[in-house]
Automatic annotation (TrEMBL):
InterPro entries in the record: AceK_kinase, AceK_regulatory, Isocitrate_DH_AceK
NCBIfam families: PRK02946.1 (NF002804)
A GO molecular-function annotation: ATP binding
Protein name: Isocitrate dehydrogenase kinase/phosphatase
GO terms of biological process kind: glucose metabolic process; glyoxylate cycle; tricarboxylic acid cycle
Source organism of this protein record: invertebrate metagenome
Annotated keywords: ATP-binding, Cytoplasm, Glyoxylate bypass, Hydrolase, Kinase, Nucleotide-binding, Protein phosphatase, Serine/threonine-protein kinase, Transferase, Tricarboxylic acid cycle
The EC number(s) this enzyme carries: 2.7.11.5
Gene that this polypeptide is encoded by: aceK
Amino acid sequence: MMSIDPILQGADLIFYGFSEYRSRFTEITRGASQRFMDADWAAVQESAAERINLYDQSVHQVIKRLAALNTDLVDQHSFWNEVCQRYAELISYRTDPELAETFYNSVYRGFCRITSDNDSECDFTLSRFSGFAVHSPGGIYRTYSLHKKGLMGLINQLFDDFSFDLPWEYRRRDICYIARTLKQEMVDFFQEKKVHVDILKWVFYRNKSACLIGRITAGQRVQPFVLPVLNNEQGALYVDTLLCDNDSVSQLFSFSRAYFMVDARYPSECMTFLQSLLPDKPLWEMYSFIGCYHHGKTVFYRDFLTHLEASSDQFVIAPGVRGLVMSVFTLPSLNIVFKLIRDRCALSKNVNRRHIQDRYRLVKVHDRVGRMADTQEFFNLKMPRYRFSESLLAELRSQTKNCVDITDKYVLLKHVYVERRMTPLNIFLQKADERAKQQALEEYGNAIKQLAAANIFPGDMLLKNFGVTRHGRVVFYDYDEICYLTECRFRRLPKPLYPEQEMACDPWFSVGPDDVFPEEWPVFLLPDKSLRRIFETMHGDMFSCDFWQNLQQKIREGCVVDVFSYRKDKRFSRRIG
């Protein structure tokens, strides 16, 4: 009987495992179109979580198959070296080789349980397809020339090409809105002789919207061109707005939002197109936006190594109030923070390591509605010790021994979360003028309310647990106490029967673990009276039980919140005639 070469068998197992993963990933993604047409918003949320969980499930399945190989070679360096070479040949024919590399890395590291500085001969720490974009034979976008079609003709042709399974609510109205917006916001563009619009052939689905993503080009100038399409839930579609400014489109592709469902069969070419719209967005975030967040981790790590080589500053403790659960540090020259779970959480925090990891996982799979920062989870991340300040090393030694190893040369982070750095809201308010304070406090309340409408209760809502982005948006980033809103029991404070009860330091009434008393929040959250007065004029309804109980009832009835990444004043009117 002919024996099977274990090298070929190992490479084939990983290759077929990746192919199975991508097939299922694509199947879930392509189903987004029908879910959108059916306005099946519950299924939208379920499929998003299913697709996120799919990667780890697929990697673990391949690791099990490798463990079942009848050979001792799997523990040898030479075996993995040859498997890697064979695998590189197999994936060179795919349209997504960079994703295949990352999948291999996940299997290799998971199977061998190695650190991040392994021998690059055995994996793809250094990509063999870096800078190599696989191009679609037919192209990934359609081009519409203003010179050939005229503005109304261009938009009409675009509507014809993207024929959804539902009719338009009022096509002519939407086309007129788009044309008017272009004329108002892009006057300079239309003075050029050659103006054209490029639109990706793939529709970007997320939450309740289907976005047509493109760019408008005039000479050397490029601006985004994005049309969010919504379902009126009565059998017709309408265009909600046109986004053609960088800030609005940047917020559409925000690290605080859910991943898009887009059938990007040529992901590297898709990235090239998206970066032409948003050149300031890092590539690793771009991959995450289309659901390839594990490859986003890979790209981040490569960029991180490059940044370390090109910089000389030291890692330091992150500015802000020290956390009771997480130890946080940053590199000043990089807009990223690293978060480690402390060995011992403060007594006031009734949580453990497993609970915290579960909360971070919940944030990963739940709709973040633009109000919770996405995180990347790393294991065994090794960094040069000399880049760490002495005060940070002392903090790590005293607070995070369970997830850090420090040697003469390296600091090994056995488990760490990586997140975009923001300005803590409490620090922002200390430095802001009156107008900026009002805007930030309005955003603070909006963040809490929008999270609640998405069935997320932040738990610890102190100002220090929220950050302000460069766009002025307030985002929550402290996850150890979050829970589903429907798990909470909102109560009114009982009225004291005796003066002694009113003056007591501890509650004189029973308090359960899920009990929440909104009436206590004003002074607790906003001890500064001037800030409290501003906040109460905007969001005073938050301090009543009725507000929260009504939200809970809507969620239990199956209501799915509308989520918009753009301001309300950008939305088109839906008047007919």
